[in-house]
Design brief:
The complex is a heterodimer of chains A (about 300) and B (about 375). Chain A is α+β, with helices and mostly antiparallel strands and about 300 residues long. In chain A, about 55% of the residues lie in helices and about 15% in strands. In chain A, helix 2 (about 15-25) packs across helix 7 (about 180-190) and helix 3 (about 35-55) crosses helix 4. A five-stranded mixed β-sheet of chain B has the order 1-2-5-3-4. Chain B starts with a helix and ends with a helix. The chains are: A alpha+beta (about 300), B alpha+beta (about 375). At the A-B interface, helix 9, helix 10 and helix 11 of A face strand 2 and helix 14 of B.
Amino acid sequence: MKLNSPLIQQESMYLNPDLTSRIFLRLRESEPTPKRGIERTSSLFRFLAFDSLCKSQKRKTISFDPDTGVGMGNRKKLVEAYKKIAFVSDLGSGKEAFIDNLGHCNSSGKRSCSDKVANDFLTVQLKKASQSGTEQAYPSRPSSLLSLGVEVYGHRWGISKHEDWEKNLGDFLADRLSKTALIDLAVVVTRGMSFSGDIFDSLEKNFRARQSDEFVQYWIKQARFLKREFRRTTNLDDWAVPEFVNELSADEYSRVTLDISSLEKANAELEAENSKLRAQLAELQHKFDFLNDEKSRAST
Amino acid sequence: MKPKDILLKDPKPIRKNRYFSGKRIAGLSGYIHIDKVKGWVDNPRIALEIRKDRVKFGDRAITQDEIFEIMKRTKDVKLAALRDDVLRNELKEPIIVSKNGTLLDGNRRFFAVKLLLEGLGTEHPDRKDFEKIPCYILDESTTEDDEQMVLVETNFTPAHKIEWPDYVKAEKIQEDHQDGLSIKGLSTKYQWSQSKIRETLKILELVDEFQTLATDEIDAADPEAGGFGMTEMEAIAFVSEKYQHFNEAQRSLRGKLGKDHEFTHNFFRLLKDGVFASFPEVRSADEMWDHPEARAVLLSGKPHAAKEALTVVNSAKRVINITEKAEDKVTEVINTLRKLTSEEMDSLKAETVTELKEVLKLVTDMSLAAKD
């Protein structure tokens, strides 16, 4: 199917799941450091989830006060918004597979999306900020996207976007295999939404439906300079499929997860083989140098 | 042909070991007839010039005569100056050749002598003197690795008259890295620190990013976001010339390059247009971009726009500095006054207190009036 084929003009086209998973995989860090990768992904997704809440509530600061009904409601909404971005598939028995590091899928079943927000973020980070008496920039590294402990109705349970979030957001997508991580992120985040017409117009439209105006403006401004590279590095021949493939269904994502696992396994095997060869090469080089030195000594 | 047979018999060659990168290499020291030397046709020093003529040569190997012509026209090689020096002082530093007579070090010297002989003509009485050149030839036992070691030692270390252009060195390092040589391996091979190797690879990443953009087509629908429409050769020539600007950008702008795509694209465009003339201008490009007034100047298309934008940024810094200094001084006075004990206050002279009152009134009145 070509980009401008008549089929694309139809309503309700959906992203090809193969394309989505390929794009997802290239969002991995170029020099993987799992702990750093997980930290950055969590911070980025929390920011995006919070931003979508700002959009739906038309507010810049939102209270997550556990002692008020509104605050508790907002906590649930934040978890839901996070889940929309990170959830991959239901593993049964209340367990779920989810994206905990861009380009990787955590299917251990030990943790869940709500752990990442309710436990780690709201109960630890925000609580600490609410008790500190001053606003806390979050995260502290590589740079900050949110301000925690912002005063709302006399209590410090509020969150707002950090004043430098636009300057800092690029830090969270730096050093990826992909050079178009900002567009790739949009593909992954809006993966379950319908598309029509041009892929970039659709990504913008879908982002606009979910994220705040200021975030969409930022995305448009930056993505404009990445479109050429995206087109060059992405096969867009079959980017859309006419029928809705529920990518959130267990089957589809099990397949994607499986793909990822098999790729990871293959990579690990290759890496092991490489290091074995490198060690052999170093040993041979060492022997060669030694023999050469001996030879030079003998000749003099 | 054996190495000893490549050298002239008179004066008699002397067996001699030399050290390169700490390794002892066996060889013979003597004189060689210029016709016995095989010029180094893959010399990276002139690789850029060769690429310019690639269309003319096609896929065939370039001959020594063609290299000679390229060397003659490449200004950076300064062949004529060296020829004049040889004519006045003869060639003192021996060239180094591999065991089969291929030049490893002394390409410029070799071609300078050829240029000199070309000028002298076949009948000149001194011709024979210049045809014999001092030479060190590697022993038969030497390997390709030994030759590589000589190459690196004589071209990557700073003790030599004209080193390879920085971009050419960087490209060679990147090439080896892409072939699988580790940072440690590169460091050993080129005798550069591991951090310098890492830095070089980062500069090349930036250069690659620029080249992709530069050689991309101009986008008629969105010219500001499209490529620059340069040919591959134009892009290579540009990055070679501006390599140190990329070096500076890699050091100073890493917080923004590749993360803020609007900035990155515009920075590359302005660099290509020659807006950043000096290193301080490159160094402060992010500050100029973040300052609305400076950014407007930078994008104005005026000649010396970056210089002017830098002035805007620096004066803004000075204003902030002066304001901060005044604030600090007043805070210090306030703190001093607050810490005064009752005895100290009692001890103040009446005229001092009056003066203090007047000063405080003046400062507060003027400050509030300015804010209104």
